[in-house]
Amino acid sequence: MGMRLPDFHLDEAKYSLPRRLVTSVLRQLATVIPADSEAERGEIWLDVCEQFHALQPRDAAEAALVARAIAANLAAADCLARAARRGLSDDTAMRLRATAIASNRLATAALRALARGRPADCGGKRKRSG
Fold first, then answer.
1. C-alpha to C-alpha distance for 76 and 98, rounded to whole angstroms
2. Which domain holds residue 71?
């Protein structure tokens, strides 16, 4: 990817994450931004950074869940936009919409796991104290 990522402000007081981790996760997210132009990519990039910071991941596992949710949301939006294009067969449009629905489910599952404080794919039940 040839895009230079803009600097972003990381409020160290809000995060217990190392800056290198945040930078790494955001760079990975930048590679999945669907855009037709660099200007559009730059606008979406700012949204991605705002979403990441708004969810305030506290550790590497939460940062991965946040990234998964954001990437799935980007994929869903891209699939829906492609499905709305003229000239697509009904089968292609339906497959794109189905993929968008699956991506939205992944985003929702990641956000729910973040809210519960455990990874979505950990498999086991969380023990409650008390």
1. 9
2. 19-116
